[in-house]
Amino acid sequence: MNNSSDALFAPRLADMAERCRRDGCSVFSRFFDERQCAEAEQWCRYNAGDLQYGFFGGFSDARRRILAFYHDYSAEYITEELPIVCLTFTFRNEDRLSHRDFLGSFMALKLKRDTIGDIVIKDGMAQAAVNETAARDITMSISKIGRTGVKITDSRPFELTLAETEEFRETSCTAASLRLDCIVAAAAKISREKAAALIRSEKTEVNHLPVSSVSAELKEGDILSIRGCGRFILSGINGTTKKGRIHIILKKYI
Asked: How far apart are alpha carbons 189 and 216 in whole angstroms?
């Protein structure tokens, strides 16, 4: 965890853990983004001690999730305690609403971003994971998203997943090794020297955390973010060429 994040973030996590120990009840954060989840996971691994912890976002593949600290005796019931509400919006399929449309309407209510989790949209329906305060404000105040009328219910379970709606562009290429500078060069289509400069200037992240070592090794499934180039998944490692280069498959989020 970098110093600026640690100075701001770690005391919040420590306070949550202490309240859980002191009061004997489960304690929940607001929604963390992917980087915050990765940093919180790092902190919990070394500091949770006797407590159980987990990350939950409603959707099975949620990116934005809340952190829960709880005791062993609460483990069986923790999903029932989660302060996450599923809001389901239905609208005409021909009305092409986007993630930006929904988030903009929520933000217009002066809601904080950390009260809202993922928003998934498909075929005339959207589902949003929100906390209880946001759920109340949204259901009381919103009848339209943009100019499109919507019906809202909080009684349907989460049915959509991010995987259903995400789109990728797949590229097959080769790399000299699985070192970070080699994979960044292949993903961004630049030289290893330029890739190394990006890494050293902290413009790359692996699994949502900054990495400044050019020699860090990647593995299949790792998520690589390159500032100015986008985000990629190293989705396949498929043998070597006659010259010893490694066949890889990169999926770029689009």
From this structure: 19
Q: Is residue 239 over pLDDT 50?
A: yes
Number of residues that this document lists for the chain: 254
- Contact between 115 and 122 under an 8 Å Cβ cutoff? The reply is no
Q: Which CATH superfamily is domain 85-165 in?
A: RRM (RNA recognition motif) domain (3.30.70.330)
Computed over its alpha carbons, how large is the radius of gyration of the chain?
21
Would you say 124 and 159 are in contact if contact means Cβ atoms under 8 Å apart?
Answer: no
Residue 14 CB coordination number (10 Å): 12
- The CATH fold of domain 168-253: 3.10.290
pLDDT digits (tens, 9 = 90+) for 154-206: 999 999 988 877 788 999 999 999 999 999 999 999 999 999 999 999 999 99
* Upper half-sphere CA count for residue 239 (Cβ side, 13 Å): 2
Q: For residue range 25-49, what is the model confidence (pLDDT) as tens digits? A: 999 999 999 999 999 999 999 999 9
